[in-house]
């Protein structure tokens, strides 16, 4: 059989593309070598949020005296937390498999390698069997980066060093956790383990945590976690991992911090090795597959979506890229846009952002104004966050009087940042936004309050 589409990878980009293509009547075969749902569903987005919700409930009780609630004997059962996380994953994986089946997608749970191209299409081999497809979508995702730090590989082999995968499986809360890397994944896992009782230390090479997020929000987030006992070593380079500690260089001196467990979280790399790209000469740059805004590669009828193209390593980006790729295959006009992709760090409080920051806008030479107001302007935020110090920032294009960026430090911000993404995509003016009625009382009213400050 010659399939209309071969999909390599069953993560967000791969399974959604398979569903959309199958629903449109294409014959599709999707290969997944590990777990259907990919990293996001099995080792990333979903399980992390499941743990973080348990931590949020725990924090709610632990700091309940602010709200007139007191409790004694508070504890967390890590085994039950992990069991519930696994139940959530099983439910969602079953749902994905069911949807694939309903859309007549052939799912092959095996590693597949591209073997070339012939007159009938592209060929891959899996379990010793050759499959042929008229089109090929590469959605093989990404893996944690492992730098050449002395002792690191030995630590991973012994279980002393964890990636996000292992950190979501352990059933005992470590007394001392060292996190190498202060990016999104590192911060979220640090947030969870800090809440449930670990002494957490973050070692970050840069002079700030949270990557390219707005400095004002980052500083407040760090301040919040320092109050909770988390220790940050910035401008610090890890030099060695031992069996019970981590050595790092800071200010010209080598320091050491003890640990029961170490979490390695310094970024991810696209999975382009060992999948046979060389057999069809797919172009790669800086370790990722090169694609245009139609998700096309340099080869005809070969597409790439998700982390493997290195453009925006987020599950929701992968979903949209997959839809664009399938629409283009079907002859529909569609283009991937990256100007308004929301990003969230699901700490407590959350950071949500979209579009330009104050720094990136000015770095690009945009003529912008900045609106910055405290979250206390929101009645519901004030009611639910005793002593909260969240802020909302909007980046305004002076010429068009449109929002080109937004950053919010506050719980619930992950749920309403989409409003700002919509404003950016539709290029609504401030006058347009002022006419939109926001529900009251809600935390999202902060956007309306901020707009009226201009």
Task: Describe the protein.
- The chain is 33% helix and 26% strand.
- The chain is an alpha/beta fold and 454 residues long.
- The protein has 3 domains: 2-144 and 269-329, FAD/NAD(P)-binding domain (3-Layer(bba) Sandwich); 152-266, FAD/NAD(P)-binding domain, CATH 3.50.50.60; 343-452, Enolase-like, domain 1 (2-Layer Sandwich).
- Strands 1, 2, 3, 4, 5, 6 and 19 form a 7-stranded mixed sheet that branches. A 5-stranded parallel sheet has the order 8-15-9-10-11. The protein has a 5-stranded antiparallel sheet with strand order 20-21-24-23-22, with helices on both faces.
- Strand 13 (245-250) and strand 14 (253-258) form a beta hairpin.
- Helix 3 (45-62) packs antiparallel against helix 4 and helix 3 (45-62) packs parallel to helix 7 (184-195).
- The radius of gyration is 23 Å and the shape is globular.
- The model has no long low-confidence stretch (mean pLDDT 97).
Query: Largest beta sheet, briefly?
Result: 7 strands, mixed
Domain count: the total is 3
Structural class, judged by helices and strands? Answer: alpha/beta
Supply the CATH architecture of the largest domain.
3-Layer(bba) Sandwich
CATH class of the largest domain: Alpha Beta
Q: How would the global form be characterised?
A: globular
Alpha-carbon distance between the two ends: 62 Å
- The count of strands amounts to 24
Spans of 5+ residues with little confidence (pLDDT < 50)?
none
In helices, the fraction of residues equals: 25-40%
Beta-strand portion reads 25-35%
- What is the CATH superfamily of the largest domain? FAD/NAD(P)-binding domain
CATH fold annotation of the largest domain: FAD/NAD(P)-binding domain
Q: What is the number of helices?
A: 14
- Mean pLDDT value: 97
């Amino acid at each position: 059989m010659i399939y209309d589409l071969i999909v390599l990878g069953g993560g967000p980009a791969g399974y959604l593309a398979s569903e959309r293509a199958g629903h449109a009547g294409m014959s599709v075969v999707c290969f997944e070598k590990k777990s259907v749902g990919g990293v996001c569903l099995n080792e990333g987005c979903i399980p992390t949020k499941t743990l973080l919700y348990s931590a949020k409930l725990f924090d709610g009780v632990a700091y309940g005296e602010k709200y007139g609630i007191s409790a004694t004997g508070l504890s967390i059962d890590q085994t039950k937390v992990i069991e519930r996380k696994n139940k959530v994953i099983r439910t969602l994986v079953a749902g994905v498999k069911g949807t694939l089946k309903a859309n007549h997608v052939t799912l092959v749970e095996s590693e597949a390698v591209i073997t070339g191209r012939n007159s009938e299409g592209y060929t891959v081999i899996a379990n010793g069997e050759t499959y042929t497809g008229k089109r090929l979508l590469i959605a093989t995702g990404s893996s944690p980066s492992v730098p050449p730090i002395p002792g690191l590989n030995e630590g991973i082999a012994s279980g002393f060093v964890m990636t996000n995968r292992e950190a979501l499986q352990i059933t005992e809360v470590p007394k001392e956790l060292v996190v190498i890397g202060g990016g999104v994944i590192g911060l979220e896992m640090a947030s969870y383990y800090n809440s449930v009782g670990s002494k957490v230390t973050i070692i970050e090479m840069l002079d700030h945590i949270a990557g390219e997020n707005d400095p004002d929000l980052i500083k407040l987030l760090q301040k919040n976690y320092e109050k909770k006992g988390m220790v940050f070593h910035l401008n610090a380079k890890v030099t060695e991992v031992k069996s019970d500690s981590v050595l790092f260089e800071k200010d010209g001196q080598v320091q050491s911090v003890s640990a029961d467990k170490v979490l390695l979280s310094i970024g991810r790399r696209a999975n382009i090795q060992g999948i046979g790209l060389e057999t069809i000469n797919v172009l790669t740059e800086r370790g990722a597959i090169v694609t245009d805004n139609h998700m096309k590669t340099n080869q005809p009828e070969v597409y790439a979506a998700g982390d493997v193209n290195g453009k925006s390593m987020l599950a929701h980006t992968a979903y949209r890229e997959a839809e664009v790729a399938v629409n283009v295959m079907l002859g529909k006009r569609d283009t991937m846009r990256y100007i308004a992709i929301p990003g969230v760090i699901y700490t407590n409080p959350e950071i949500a952002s979209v579009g330009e920051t104050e720094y990136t806008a000015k770095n690009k030479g945009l003529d912008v104004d900045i609106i910055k107001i405290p979250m206390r302007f929101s009645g519901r935020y004030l009611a639910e966050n005793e002593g909260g110090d969240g802020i909302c920032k909007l980046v305004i294009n002076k010429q068009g009087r449109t929002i080109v960026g937004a950053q919010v430090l506050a719980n619930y911000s992950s749920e309403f940042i989409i409003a700002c993404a919509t404003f950016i995509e539709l290029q609504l003016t401030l006058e347009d936004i002022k006419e939109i009625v926001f529900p009251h009382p809600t935390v999202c009213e902060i956007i309306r309050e901020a707009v009226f400050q201009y």
